[in-house]
Amino acid sequence: MGLIPHWCSYVAGKWVDGDDRFTVENPADETPAADVSAAPVDEIERAVVEARRSFDAGVWADLPAAERAETLHAFLDHIEATGEALVDTIVAEAGQPVFFAEGTQLRTGLAAARDTIDLYLSMAHEESNPVPVDELVRGRLALSLRRHEPVGVVAAITPYNAALMMGFQKIVPALMAGNSVVLRPSPLTPVSSLMFGAAAEVAGIPPGVLSVVVEPGAAGAELLTTHPAVDMVSFTGSTTVGRAILAQAAPTIKRVALELGGKSAQIYLPDAVEKAAGGAMAVVAATAGQACVAATRMLVPQDRKDEVVEAVSRVYAGIKVGPPSDREALMGPVISAAQRDRCERYVEMAREKGGRVAFGGGRPEGLEHGYFFEPTVLDLPDNSNPAAQEEIFGPVIGIIGYRDVDDAVRIANDSEYGLSGQVYGADVAAATAVARRLRTGAVNVNTALFSAYAPSGGYKQSGLGRERGTDGIRAFQEVKHMVVGELR
């Protein structure tokens, strides 16, 4: 296994090796995956100051969009060329199967990043506003223009479960829009994100325009969310941390974009119940349930609930759990001992509140090392159960029965979250009608799509703003109104 050769932060065009180091653990075997240099807080401060300088000087923002696009394609080319070492790094620090690290994080992430560049270039960033004729006459107006301009300095904070993909999702639209960016990845999986610094160096992105800072704690992240020179914070992670970021950003009135937790529902209409077992597989395979969009609440007709619980249990019994080195393993570990403990705790809470463990619920036999947890099926009596209300972020699915379609919609919407959802039905029109009633930022009807052209984001406590799509690009832009008239 050959990891990427970068172990310290990239600040304003230079690699910075601090005095303090921290160990990144391999969650599949609990061994050290990497020994990383922690960025001193004053270097994170310097990353912000240099980002501010680079933006205000216009060394990147004032370039024609086509030139920014050319440089960013070179940036992506370098990442693609180092793909083998990058995949090995993701596998080592995140414990994810190779097929997910390579196929989803790297290949899908790169494709979406390139499509984001194309999407930006296809959009109008200066548009005329319609103006009533009488205002044209009275105001001697020649033009009323709406300009979309870069926000300025963006702090991008990414999660451990998809560090590379989330990095693409924030860095590329932000840079394409002309911003300067300071990226701070999760301390649990920081190494793969250092490739963004290496790619910036090779592609010739001007110093200060993109910095990548790594740390074992949260002092640097707090600096980024409070620093007056930062104009925007883009964060993906838990709702708890998202609330803290909102409070930290409030005194300086920063723009904040948050993609937070979820407790998404997958609804099976009576004519599609036989599809439930396949939908359950998608919750845990590859990610071990560590995905904010994972549909961990399965809603099925009450009179067929026992049938579904049995079918899903059979499917989960067939999932091979193991380290990424086992090519037959469909599911790896969760990220840490604390996360495994969280899974155990919520399974026990589900039992205490009347739920039944139909399959799994503990640590798999034969895996003495690593933070493994069995794919788990919970038969839940209703939606008030803690396992139905709280985001567990592990390989645990809860199955709940509904009386009729109205009851299914009520249960799905009975959540503080609203990030994603799924509806399955042979009658596509009926399934789509149900999807329209769900209070969530995205709904998949009988299929799924991940695209640079389609937005994602949450309702309620699942976040603010959108990523990907035109909305995701506009999130990194301010709107300026310009009125132009003749001098008389």
From TrEMBL:
Gene3D superfamilies: Aldehyde Dehydrogenase, Chain A, domain 1, Aldehyde Dehydrogenase, Chain A, domain 2. InterPro entries: Ald_DH/histidinol_DH, Ald_DH_C, Ald_DH_CS_CYS, Ald_DH_CS_GLU, Ald_DH_N, Aldehyde_DH_dom. Transmembrane segments: none annotated. CDD domains: ALDH_CddD-AldA-like. Its EC number is 1.2.1.3. PROSITE patterns: ALDEHYDE_DEHYDR_CYS, ALDEHYDE_DEHYDR_GLU. It comes from the Bacteria. The active site is at E259. It is an enzyme of class 1 (oxidoreductase). Coiled coil: none annotated. Belongs to the aldehyde dehydrogenase family. This is aldehyde dehydrogenase (NAD(+)). It comes from Actinomadura rugatobispora.
